[in-house]
Structures are given as C-alpha cells and as structure tokens.
C-alpha cells in the first residue's frame, strides 16, 4: 500500500497492525464508528530518533510540513476543579491555550498538562499522543484548518509510528468541537 502523503516504505491499514498501537488506540480502531471508513486510517512505521518535525519532514517528504498535526493535552482549572482536554492543531501552529482553550473549557486558567498526566490519563506515549483513542468524556478541540486538510499525519499513540487519516475524520471523533483559530502562528 502506498501512503497518500509522504515517502514511507511501509504503509498499512491501521486495523491490520493493532499490535503496533497502544491499547487505547487499538481499541478505538477495533470499535471504529465514524463517517470515514476504518480502512482510511493508515499506519506508517517511523523511526523515533527522527520524530522532530524538521528531521521527519526532511526524511519523509516536504509535503508533510503542511499536513502534520499535533495533539496536546491541556488542563483547565476553575474553582479547584480540573478539566482535561486534547487539542489538535497543524504542527506549524501553536495551541492558543490562554485564549481559545481557556474560553472553550470555561476555565479561569489553562495550561499544558504535565507529561505524567498526559501519558497516565491517555495510556499513550509522550510525543505520540493522538486524538484517536482518548478518553471519550474529554473535550477534543480541533482547529478547523486540520479538518480542512485532505490527509493529516498525526501520532499513533506511540513515539514510533504515525497515522495518516483524512482531516475530516477529526470532526466526528468523540467529544470533538471544531474551532476557528485554535492554532496560532
């Protein structure tokens, strides 16, 4: 199988390589229910040593620069209560934590969750967190530019390996809210 973007030696349907995914991601793929067929979730094996965006793009293709997205875990706090959420933005942008995220969560303060919180609560590896397989009760804030991207490269739950999926898939994930300008330059 050839990946729709990038230059990868080994692209396969994610459903055919569940053992390469973390358990929460594999469970989400097994139980897939979205308008986009599960066959359009593609897994590509990647070297974690070149996971940095610049090195990754140099190795796997310049077309990935505009098609790569990051998923980060944020914590919103208000009155002693904490709400965890995930944000998905194109990798050339940053998450507007103190503006869009704070307002959407109705939080007094918002910040990136600690690495221990992000990995412990998601069951995924730091640097590979993906919106596919997150806790279903979490808000999933997605920048509209991600949804408008034909094919998106995102983490697979592990630092090794990535998923390539249609951008419109993110709008149909549990808890998804599509926002304008979630990602800022």
Automatic annotation (TrEMBL):
Gene3D superfamilies: YbaK/aminoacyl-tRNA synthetase-associated domain (3.90.960.10). It comes from the Bacteria. InterPro entries: YbaK/aa-tRNA-synt-asso_dom_sf, YbaK/aa-tRNA-synth-assoc-dom. Residues 49-165 form the YbaK/aminoacyl-tRNA synthetase-associated domain. CDD domains: PA2301. This is YbaK/EbsC family protein.
């Amino acid at each position: 199988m050839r990946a729709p973007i990038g230059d990868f030696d080994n692209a396969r349907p994610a459903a055919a390589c569940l053992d390469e995914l973390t358990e929460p991601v594999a469970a989400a793929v097994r139980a897939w229910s979205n308008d986009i067929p599960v066959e359009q979730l593609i897994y590509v094996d990647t070297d974690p040593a070149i996971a940095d965006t610049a090195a990754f793009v140099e190795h796997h293709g310049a077309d990935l620069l505009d098609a790569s997205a990051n998923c980060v875990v944020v914590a919103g706090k208000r009155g002693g209560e904490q709400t965890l959420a995930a944000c998905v933005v194109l990798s050339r942008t940053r998450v507007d934590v103190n503006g869009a995220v704070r307002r959407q969560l109705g939080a007094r303060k918002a910040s990136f969750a600690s690495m221990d919180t992000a990995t412990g609560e998601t069951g995924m590896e730091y640097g590979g967190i993906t919106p596919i397989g997150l806790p279903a009760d979490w808000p999933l804030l997605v920048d509209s530019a991600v949804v408008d991207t034909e094919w998106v490269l995102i983490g697979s739950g592990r630092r090794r390996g990535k998923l390539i999926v249609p951008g419109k898939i993110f709008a149909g994930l549990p808890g998804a809210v599509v926002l304008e300008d979630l990602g800022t330059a």
